[in-house]
Amino acid sequence: MNIERFQQILDAYGSREDNWPREERQAAQLLLQSNTECVSLLRRCHSVDDYLDEYVPRVPPALRQKILQRLPGSIIDTIVNWLIPDVRSDFWRPVIAGSLLLVMGVMLGTSTLGDLLDSTAVDDNWEEEIYLLALDDTVNGMEIIDE
Amino acid sequence: MGVDEADLIRESVNGDESAYELLLEQHLPSLTNYVMRMMANTAEADDIIQETFIRLWTHGQTFNPRYAKLTTWLHNIAHNLCIDHFRKHNRMIGEPTEQPDVEARGPEQGYIQQRQVRSIQEAMMALPEKQRSAIIMCHYQGLSNKDAAAVIEISVEALESLMARGRKKLKDILENEY
User: Fold this and answer.
1) Do B29 and A55 touch (CB under 8 A)?
2) Could you tell me if B131 and A11 are in contact, meaning their C-beta atoms sit under 8 angstroms apart?
3) What is the pTM of this model?
4) Neighboring chain B residues of A64 at a CB cutoff of 8 Å
């Protein structure tokens, strides 16, 4: 450590010893104790640090909550958030998610199984099949030729 | 006994929200101070802080504790988001917000204090982004020179040069002011 390097440290890191590079701090402190020129260099460097210390930024409110609310979750979570945006309760979220799955299951079930179980639809299909067979020109797979 | 940060990150990456909340608790105050000083307390700072921590949740698996500390990784994300913001908006920033705490010292004292803080804020914003970022990290954030250099992705020598130029400019501006 020499005065030139000491000056470079002050220019870059300022007068606070805690901010000086860890691996050079001790050497810089020793030089400071033994050299009056270093003391006057340090004294001249204080003002910028004092200005900087006055600048305390504002902390935005509810930042933590905002971040947690914006976390992307599962598809079910996304749908629940879309349907009921204000729900954050540990009890109601799984209940709503479960209900949502149940409702989706019921809707899917009624739309597909309903057609299969509908007897009128089965009868209609059967009648249609007989009608088509009656129009067919083949008997047991052999074609009837009109003479 | 404290919980190991590497374990918390692993659990957070696996979707454990309580592990994530602990990481948030540890790093949010420091990152907030960094971004608020980089962006001069503007409303955009709020979005950048949120986005930084959303990335911890969504891209946490890209963090490797063997190569960096979590605080360095988060500062790197926040630094890049700030730089991107300045590039997109052509270095324009919103109106700095008021400093609410200084009013508590009495109206006259509060006014002087507020003006002083405003001057320092404006002087900081007059610096190029990388100079400002380097000074904030080494003066306020307690990052080592190696970590601060890693955040800006430059050498330690280049970092020292940035800080020396930044501090000289700050001194010139502020000593002319007072």
Assistant:
1) no
2) no
3) 0.72
4) 24-25, 28
